[in-house]
């Protein structure tokens, strides 16, 4: 289907949303349960809101060691409202703790929801949400280690994400946008990782009733183009197998540096078709990513297992865990709860050479990360200009600034991203980006 014509000078998608006004340190916000929170210095700016250090209201100043962050955006914006639906239903602290206790888990990488509400100032209304504070994101770590993670780390991350996905799936949601830039390390424990950004989260089974498979050409390619599922490429609402397919792509990229379709992300139909070919022949897909002696059998088995799932099937999470645990055993190690990010190119099962490093459009994000300097001294973060975005036009799209890796581009790297505990403003193929007139909808829109 050809893209619709654009008016001259237009075509960048929905009208710009207003940015939140910056509040002074010490501003007190009261949530819906009448609990008061005090703001500290702003430490991040997203496309539509600001992120502040925060603590429970007291006479003390909010310092650089504050354990909470508060995302604030104008109340008539949609992104934070959408995420709130997920957090209020599935991320309350007692709900997460109950799951951890019943499953004998040390921790679960789902951010806790501590409160939300509306705040009025200067005749304007703002929506806010209180969340745990986090540290750096895994995309930054991925770039620092030469765009390859050690095999042990990749399998450990896979195990952590299976825990997270099983939890959110059992609470009627799918995430739909798993990637390194949406995985944050704990602020206090570098061995704990959390999946954030539920702006694309979808309630696939409201009140336990599964959604039916239905292709919609107007929704094709939602998500982050290099990782999004085949279902999303076809305009189908995400399901549990979609999350696991995305996880498979992530693990392969983390281990080999580059997915087979990454040179043509500006052509979503090409990306979709290559993914279909890879699903039809997983062994051939793995051969494109790894040399024969370095091919990780456990990732092939993982993807073969996911391939067997139908749209409404419940995944066999424990079987998938066993596959990854067997992979750890095959390299003479086990899951020791320690995440080591040191580069291990020679033993990683390397695919493309390190000279193929490049910056993906999806990596230039304003995400939920904290600037290292802000974390040390609590000083206000410098405001960054959001990358320009191009619109999605139904079946065809242009990936912003995406370039094929060449010697000139090998030095390109994403700038440091900032923490934002609300909706991420990733340029490119996110839900509703580039489709004029369509407003943000609640996460659980049915």
From TrEMBL:
<dbReference type="InterPro" id="IPR050235">
    <property type="entry name" value="CK1_Ser-Thr_kinase"/>
</dbReference>
<feature type="region of interest" description="Disordered">
    <location>
        <begin position="1"/>
        <end position="24"/>
    </location>
</feature>
<keyword id="KW-0539">Nucleus</keyword>
<keyword id="KW-0132">Cell division</keyword>
<dbReference type="InterPro" id="IPR011009">
    <property type="entry name" value="Kinase-like_dom_sf"/>
</dbReference>
<keyword id="KW-0723">Serine/threonine-protein kinase</keyword>
<feature type="compositionally biased region" description="Basic residues">
    <location>
        <begin position="381"/>
        <end position="391"/>
    </location>
</feature>
<dbReference type="InterPro" id="IPR000719">
    <property type="entry name" value="Prot_kinase_dom"/>
</dbReference>
<keyword id="KW-0498">Mitosis</keyword>
<keyword id="KW-0808">Transferase</keyword>
<dbReference type="GO" id="GO:0015030">
    <property type="term" value="C:Cajal body"/>
</dbReference>
<dbReference type="InterPro" id="IPR017441">
    <property type="entry name" value="Protein_kinase_ATP_BS"/>
</dbReference>
<feature type="region of interest" description="Disordered">
    <location>
        <begin position="342"/>
        <end position="446"/>
    </location>
</feature>
<keyword id="KW-0418">Kinase</keyword>
<keyword id="KW-0963">Cytoplasm</keyword>
<dbReference type="Pfam" id="PF00069">
    <property type="entry name" value="Pkinase"/>
</dbReference>
<dbReference type="GO" id="GO:0005524">
    <property type="term" value="F:ATP binding"/>
</dbReference>
<feature type="domain" description="Protein kinase">
    <location>
        <begin position="37"/>
        <end position="328"/>
    </location>
</feature>
<keyword id="KW-0067">ATP-binding</keyword>
<dbReference type="InterPro" id="IPR008271">
    <property type="entry name" value="Ser/Thr_kinase_AS"/>
</dbReference>
<feature type="compositionally biased region" description="Polar residues">
    <location>
        <begin position="343"/>
        <end position="352"/>
    </location>
</feature>
<dbReference type="GO" id="GO:0004674">
    <property type="term" value="F:protein serine/threonine kinase activity"/>
</dbReference>
<dbReference type="GO" id="GO:0051301">
    <property type="term" value="P:cell division"/>
</dbReference>
<protein>
    <recommendedName>
        <fullName>Serine/threonine-protein kinase VRK1</fullName>
        <ecNumber>2.7.11.1</ecNumber>
    </recommendedName>
</protein>
<feature type="binding site">
    <location>
        <position position="71"/>
    </location>
    <ligand>
        <name>ATP</name>
    </ligand>
</feature>
<keyword id="KW-0547">Nucleotide-binding</keyword>
<comment type="similarity">
    <text>Belongs to the protein kinase superfamily. CK1 Ser/Thr protein kinase family. VRK subfamily.</text>
</comment>
<dbReference type="GO" id="GO:0005737">
    <property type="term" value="C:cytoplasm"/>
</dbReference>
<keyword id="KW-0131">Cell cycle</keyword>
């Amino acid at each position: 289907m050809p893209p619709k014509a654009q008016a001259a000078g237009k075509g960048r998608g929905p009208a710009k949303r207003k940015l939140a006004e910056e509040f002074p340190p010490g501003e007190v916000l009261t949530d819906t349960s009448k609990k008061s929170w005090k703001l500290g210095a702003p430490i991040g700016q997203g496309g539509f809101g600001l992120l502040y250090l925060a603590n429970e209201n007291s006479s003390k100043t909010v310092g650089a060691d504050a354990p909470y962050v508060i995302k604030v955006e104008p109340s008539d914006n949609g992104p934070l409202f959408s995420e709130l639906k997920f957090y209020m239903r599935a991320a309350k602290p007692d709900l997460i703790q109950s799951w951890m206790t019943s499953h004998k888990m040390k921790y679960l990488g789902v951010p806790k929801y501590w409160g939300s509400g509306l705040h009025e100032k200067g005749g304007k209304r703002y929506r806010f949400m209180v969340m745990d504070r986090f540290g750096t994101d895994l995309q930054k770590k991925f770039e620092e280690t030469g765009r390859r993670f050690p095999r042990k780390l990749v399998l450990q991350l896979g195990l952590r994400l299976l825990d997270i996905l099983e939890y959110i799936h059992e609470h009627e949601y799918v995430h739909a946008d798993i990637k390194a830039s949406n995985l944050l390390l704990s602020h206090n424990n570098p061995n704990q990782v959390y999946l954030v950004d539920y702006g694309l989260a979808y309630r696939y089974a409201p009140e336990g009733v599964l959604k039916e498979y239905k292709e919609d050409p107007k929704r094709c390619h939602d998500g982050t183009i290099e990782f999004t599922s085949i279902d999303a490429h076809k305009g189908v609402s995400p399901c549990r197998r979609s999350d696991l397919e995305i996880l498979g792509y992530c693990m392969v990229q983390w281990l080999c540096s580059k997915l087979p379709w990454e040179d043509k992300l500006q052509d979503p139909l090409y990306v979709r078709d290559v993914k279909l070919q890879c699903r039809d022949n997983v062994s051939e897909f793995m051969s494109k990513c790894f040399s024969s002696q370095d091919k990780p059998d456990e990732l092939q088995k993982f993807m073969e297992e996911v391939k067997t799932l139908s749209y409404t099937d419940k995944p066999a999470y424990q079987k998938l865990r066993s596959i990854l645990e067997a992979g750890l055993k095959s390299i003479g190690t086990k899951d020791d709860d320690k995440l080591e990010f040191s580069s291990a190119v020679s033993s990683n099962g390397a695919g493309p050479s390190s000279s193929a490093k490049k910056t993906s459009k999806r990596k230039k994000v304003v995400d939920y990360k904290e600037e290292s300097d802000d974390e040390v001294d609590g000083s206000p973060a410098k405001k960054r200009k959001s990358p320009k975005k191009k619109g999605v036009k139904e079946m065809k799209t242009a990936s912003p600034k995406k370039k094929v890796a060449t010697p000139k581009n090998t030095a390109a790297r994403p700038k440091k991203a900032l923490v934002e505990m609300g909706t991420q403003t990733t340029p490119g193929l996110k839900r509703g980006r580039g489709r004029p007139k369509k407003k943000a909808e609640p996460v659980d829109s049915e």
